């Protein structure tokens, strides 16, 4: 577990400020679901943007899920993840109340599966696929990274991922999913739709990040700390937990993404 100060984060940002010397390209609105039975809403929402270094080969890729409480938001590439030498697959997924759980989890798994099948066409290495996202995107990252059934539906083992990095995500059952069942959003629940329901010893590199425990959303640090404690208690040597001191849920995005950049570069080099 690591508490990061404002000063240490500023230094890390400065050290990594130099961008990767390559031309980048973005291919937009690529469907990641196929079939004649798709609904109009699936056709509208189930798309990705692929941001990648043109004319490069063998690079890593981050599949990125946006935030928005599972009720809002849209795909985009955080500026901190640009020009870093890896690709970003920014994902749109269906949202509540037009759909209910587990539709958004199924979409997240489908987008990751699409990346495994297609990233080589863009020059990426399918052995260097990372998954991350912020807030609701962090929740989706955690659940597909720990509960193997979602990727198994696409004949992918979650342990094929090069790394999993939920950023300020709920590790208990998401409050929108609780609300769908008539449970108050502040009532903590850990059921089969919670990442914390699936602590495992045998994961890929797994990085949990939150804002300051006193400034981030209620209980956000504690949920992540609980999962980290359970994973490390099982003997997981790959799990790490970072708290970015002095940052709230909104302002923690840049330093959390910076930690993600370091995480991806470190573990991509090891593959």
Automatic annotation (TrEMBL):
Signal peptide: 1-21
First-level EC class: hydrolase
Cross-referenced Pfam families: BD-FAE
Keywords: Hydrolase, Signal
Alphabetical list of InterPro entries matching this protein: AB_hydrolase_fold, BD-FAE-like_dom, Carboxylesterase_B_AS, GDXG_lipolytic_enzyme
EC number: 3.1.1.3
Record domain BD-FAE-like: where: 49-149
Name used for this protein in its record: Lipase 2
Gene: lip2
């Amino acid at each position: 577990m690591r508490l990061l100060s404002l000063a240490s984060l500023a230094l890390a940002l400065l050290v990594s400020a130099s961008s990767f010397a390559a031309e980048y390209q973005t291919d937009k609105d690529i469907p990641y679901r196929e079939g004649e039975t798709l609904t109009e809403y699936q056709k509208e929402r189930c798309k990705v943007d692929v941001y990648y270094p043109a004319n490069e080969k063998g690079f890593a890729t981050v599949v990125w899920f946006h935030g928005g409480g599972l009720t809002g938001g849209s795909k985009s590439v955080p500026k901190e993840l640009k020009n870093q030498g890896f690709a970003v697959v920014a994902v749109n997924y269906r949202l509540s109340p037009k759909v209910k759980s587990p539709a958004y989890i199924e979409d997240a798994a489908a987008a990751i599966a699409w990346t495994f099948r297609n990233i080589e066409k863009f020059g990426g290495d399918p052995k260097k696929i990372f998954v991350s996202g912020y807030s609701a995107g962090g929740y989706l990252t955690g659940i597909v990274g720990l509960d193997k059934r979602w990727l198994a539906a696409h004949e992918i083992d979650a342990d094929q991922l090069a790394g999993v990095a939920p950023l300020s995500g709920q590790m208990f059952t998401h409050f929108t999913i609780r609300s769908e069942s008539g449970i108050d959003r502040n009532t903590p629940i850990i059921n089969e739709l919670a990442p914390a329901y699936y602590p495992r010893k045998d994961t890929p590199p797994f990085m949990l990040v939150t804002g300051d425990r006193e400034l981030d959303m209620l209980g956000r640090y504690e949920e992540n700390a609980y999962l980290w404690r359970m994973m490390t208690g099982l003997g997981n040597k790959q799990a790490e937990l970072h708290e970015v001191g002095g940052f709230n849920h909104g302002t923690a995005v840049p330093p959390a993404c910076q930690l993600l950049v370091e995480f991806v570069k470190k573990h991509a080099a090891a593959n």
